[in-house]
Specification:
CATH topology: TIM Barrel
Strand order of the largest sheet: 9-8-7-6-2-1-11-10
Helix content: 25-40%
Distance between the termini: 24 Å
Radius of gyration: 18 Å
Length: 328
């Protein structure tokens, strides 16, 4: 995506926080949909910089405990970065040229186990969490999309075997962005993941360069189109739930996702199955560099809810989650 449309600083800024490209459509105020719903409150999701087994597990335990003490149910996403060959993970916000530390992908299982143990030990009442373990679709790690998706499904299943408790359910997540791979690579990843496990896949995707609802265009950035965005957010399997990036304060990203959902509804593929919204307000406060893409969690959720319910074919009756990214 051109730098003029997107903020993706180096590791001293919010490198892993992807922003959708603005279209030429005006940023009009969003209409209020026919249905009303109460904002559900938000959870906190985060990027994870893996180090070693002992440190990662202890940090994860403390994080899980803190989440439990908040008393808030719902979805949390942990993003571990990019899959590489030889079963390694590269830190979020980096490229293949980065010389920083790589860690074994199964280190994510250790983090999930520590987090679930901390959450379960510290929760009050019947607080529960869905913990989604995620990676991005950067295709520079030496793996095919099919291989990477299958491998991540195995990590999620192993984590579920070791970390599922009465309080925590382990699921998968993907941050699929048009700028990071060809559409074929991302499609293959999602198809392989959903074919290998029946665990829910939360699609925390961007819609870079996509048109807004009402546009005649179907083209997005980097050779993607609305069909590709719909496929990786819903169409590949019934186990996918979309939690799209709604970072922009002008509401354009909500309008892009309404276009994607409308495409599915009008082409026989069904509307997008939305589970919530993703914001990056905390990460922006931590790192800076995103003055127009720092929606609060409530603003992101409200933009998406209102825009989807402004169009008959994209209307929804529930949007249960709002989650906000921090770094890390």
């Amino acid at each position: 995506m051109p730098a003029s449309h997107r903020t993706r600083p180096a590791t001293t800024a919010i490198t892993a926080l992807a922003l959708a490209t603005a279209t030429t459509a005006p940023a009009n105020a969003l209409p209020t949909g026919p249905d009303t719903a109460d904002y559900p409150g938000h959870t906190t999701s985060s990027y994870v910089l893996l180090t070693d087994d002992t440190t990662d597990r202890a940090s994860a335990y403390q994080s899980g405990c803190a989440h439990a003490e908040s008393g808030r149910n719902g979805l949390r996403i942990l993003f571990f970065g990019t899959q590489e060959d030889n079963g390694r993970l590269r830190h979020p916000g980096t490229t293949a040229a980065a010389t920083g530390q790589r860690t074994a992908a199964d280190q994510a299982v250790t983090v999930a186990r520590g987090w679930a143990e901390g959450f379960t030990a510290c929760r009050t009442d019947d607080t529960t969490a869905r913990l989604a373990l995620g990676v991005n679709n950067k295709s520079d790690g030496g793996l095919t999309g099919a291989t990477a998706g299958k491998q991540w499904a195995a990590i999620v299943d192993e984590a579920a075997d070791q970390a599922d408790t009465t309080a925590v359910t382990i699921t998968g997540a993907v941050d699929a962005e048009p700028g990071w791979s060809a559409p074929r690579w991302a499609r293959a990843w999602v198809k392989a993941f959903t074919s290998a496990t029946d665990r829910t896949l939360y699609a925390a995707n961007s819609a870079d360069g996509c048109p807004v609802h009402g546009s005649a265009s179907t083209s997005c950035n980097n050779g993607w189109d609305l069909a590709d965005l719909h496929y990786v957010a819903t169409g590949a399997a019934p186990t996918i739930r979309a939690v799209p990036q709604i970072y922009r304060t002008d509401g354009i990203q909500a309008r892009q996702w309404a276009a994607i959902s409308s495409w599915g509804a009008t082409h026989g593929n069904g509307p997008v199955r939305f589970a919530g919204s993703l914001s990056q307000h905390t990460a922006c406060s931590q790192r800076g560099g995103c003055p127009t893409t720092d929606n609060t969690p409530e603003a992101a959720w409200t933009q998406l809810w209102n825009e989807l319910n402004a169009h008959p074919e994209t209307q929804i009756s529930a949007l249960p989650y709002a989650t906000d990214m921090r770094w890390p």
